[in-house]
Amino acid sequence: MSWQQRIDEALSKQLFRNRWRKRYVVEENSTRLIKIENKTYINFSSNDYLGLNQHPLIIDSWKKGMHLMGVGAGSSGHITGFSRFHSDLEKQIAAWLGYSRAILFISGFAVNQAVISLLSKKNDRIIADKLIHASLLDAAIHSPAKLYRFKHNIIENLIFYLQYLCSGETLVVTEGIFSMDGDAAPLNKINQITKKNNSLLLVDDAHGIGIIGDKGRGSCWVHKIKPDLLTISFSKAFGISGAALLCNENIADYFLQFSRHLIYSTSIPPAQAFALKSALSLIQQGEYLRKCLDDNISYFKLGIKSTSWRFLDSNSAIQPIIIGDDNKAKDLSEKLASAGCWVNVIKPPTVPIGTTRLRITLTSVHTFKDIDVLLEVLNEAAN
Ligand SMILES: *Cc1c(COP(=O)(O)O)cnc(C)c1O
User: Fold this and answer.
1) Which of 24, 109, 188, 337 has a CA positioned 20 to 30 A from the CA of residue 85?
2) Would you say the CB of residue 314 lies under 6 angstroms from ligand 1?
């Protein structure tokens, strides 16, 4: 098959299967409100859970950082791209989460790829929760290690895989809060069983960091565990982008010496690192923002329970409504849009077949009135 045929076939198949992914041009975005194609919507699809996107302190820091260090890093961290701001941020993140080291990466996707691709060698195995994020899954699939996927959050199934002998090392992978279901992993038990097995544990807490735990320290803090490897993203609660790996001195050195994702990629701009320091301090003092978010989550849950929609038992900002059928989900999303609520549909392969959903996300900047508008449409559409 020629390149042309291959591309044409893939595209027509995508269209035919109703899987076509569409992007929308956002004209304005205040996290709570979003303007698309000249219409303003209440945005229920943002991961900016604490509404920091427009925070004046962060914007000022970014500007100040640019005045001091310019707009870009200029090179990878191993050449001249590792600034005072990067170094300070790494130290502050490590201290905040109780690790000896933090290493910055350009994105959550990159850090997950880096961790799995550097650590897993031939004869090793990776045992991962069935619902881990694409960034982890892709790296695991392409690694020389053998991949096993245990049933979502089912500890017995993890134990089942662990009991088989493996000639190499074992890496167990899960998330703090799952990105598409919004539920939490039983981290304490997973940590116990992983340790008992002398395996390494990697937790991706993209959706827990900043949101739960004392001073926003995330899922591991809540479950009182300290996994060998913790990855966090700054693209959700921090409202910006970038990511970090938390680990001990030894593993940090290993990554700095050998991770191609660090060595051959330009660091995030120093000004961004400076802005992230402001976001970090807002998150550390963010009890009020977290309380607003919690109140919104409770309010939404109370309302959705009285409808007949199938919702998942999530206590997080991610509140999916499972529709199943792609077209029905699209209809509901359109109904919500015409009432002024923006909720994206999430289809397979992002989620398992038959679980097409509206992934509603709540933030601390939504009002009860906003949520009322959403619930009202959902309530009407349920009948
Ligand atoms: C968003 C997300 C990532 C990717 O993070 P980016 O910083 O956006 O690249 C990784 N893991 C999970 C669980 C996520 O939800």
Assistant:
1) 109
2) no
- Judged on CB neighbours under 10 Å (0-12, 13-18, 19+), 96 is buried
First to last CA, the chain: 49
What is the per-residue pLDDT for 9?
Answer: 97
Residue nearest atom 10 in ligand 1 by C-alpha distance: 108
| Cross-strand bridge partners of residue 105 | 243
Residue 37 in tokens: 């194609």
In CATH terms, the superfamily for domain 23-50+286-382 is Aspartate Aminotransferase, domain 1 (3.90.1150.10)
Pocket of ligand 1 contains residue 96 by CB under 6 Å: no
CB of 170 sitting under 6 A from ligand 1: no
Query: Whose CA is closest to 24, among 7, 41, 12?
Result: 41
User: Which residue(s) pair with 128 in the sheet?
Assistant: 149, 173
Tens digits of per-residue pLDDT, 295-326? 999 999 999 998 989 888 899 999 999 999 99
Q: Quick one: CATH architecture of 56-284?
A: 3-Layer(aba) Sandwich (3.40)
Identity of the residue numbered 366:
H
Active-site residue 179, yes or no?
Answer: yes
Cis peptide, bond prior to residue 349, ω within 30 of zero: yes
Residue 382 has pLDDT above 90, yes or no: no
Give strand pairing partners of 321: 311, 358
Which pLDDT score, from 0 to 100, does residue 156 have?
Answer: 98
175 is catalytic: yes
Averaged pLDDT score across all residues of the chain: 96
What is the torsion angle, in degrees rounded to the nearest 10, for the CA atoms of residue 188, residue 190, residue 191 and residue 194? 160
206 in contact with ligand 1, CB cutoff 6 A: yes
Domain assignments of the chain as residue spans, ordered by start: 23-50+286-382, 56-284
CA distances from 19 to 134, 235, 326, 332 (A): 17, 25, 9, 17
Which pLDDT value is given to residue 383? 63
* Residue whose token pair is 């999530």: 314
Distance CA 29, CA 53 (A): 9
Q: Which residues contact 76 (CB under 8 A, 6 or more apart)?
A: 262, 263, 264, 265, 266, 267
